[in-house]
Amino acid sequence: MITIYHNPACGTSRNTLALIRNAGAEPQVIEYLKTPPSRAALVELLAGMGMTARQLLRGKEKIAEALGLNDPAVADGILLDAMMVHPILINRPIVVTPLGVKLCRPSELVLDILPDPQRGAFVKEDGEQVIDANGKRLV
Fold first, then answer.
1. Are 15 and 124 in contact (CB under 8 A)?
2. pLDDT tens-digit series, residues 72-108
């Protein structure tokens, strides 16, 4: 079972989903902006990735600046609270597989945790080829 916390408006997220499918898997797709993870689930995801809330914060979002969340003195608990109210602050995509949990930025990081190999060539939306015709990783 593979789960992706996905934003269909994000090219990195779309490429990650396509790489999962290129390995022959059909993941559970959670559009986290519509259905955000619970606080407990987010804490569990962070633990699985070995990350802090600060590392997962999408600080480039205007709301992060408006709320003062980019200040390093803001505690992780406050960041998590803000992510619950404004899920756009959660960096994406997050992928969960039997081999681990990973923030897949860039998208090809998903290859490190997919249980099955790629089934053929893959070219990212920007034209970068990351998998050759034999399913071998190029980057």
1. yes
2. 999 999 999 999 999 999 999 999 999 999 999 999 9
Strands laid side by side in the 3-6 sheet: 28-31, 3-6, 94-97, 100-103
> How many domains does the structure of the chain reveal?
1
Among the options 1, 9, 10, 44, which is catalytic? Answer: 10
Tell me the CATH number at 61: 3.40.30.10
List the domain range (segments joined by +) for residue 23: 3-131
Closest C-alpha among 3, 34, 7 to residue 91: 7
Please indicate, yes or no, if residue 39 is contained in any of the structural domains: yes
10 has catalytic annotation: yes
Task: Give the helix ranges, DSSP H, for the chain.
Answer: 11-22, 39-49, 53-56, 62-66, 76-85
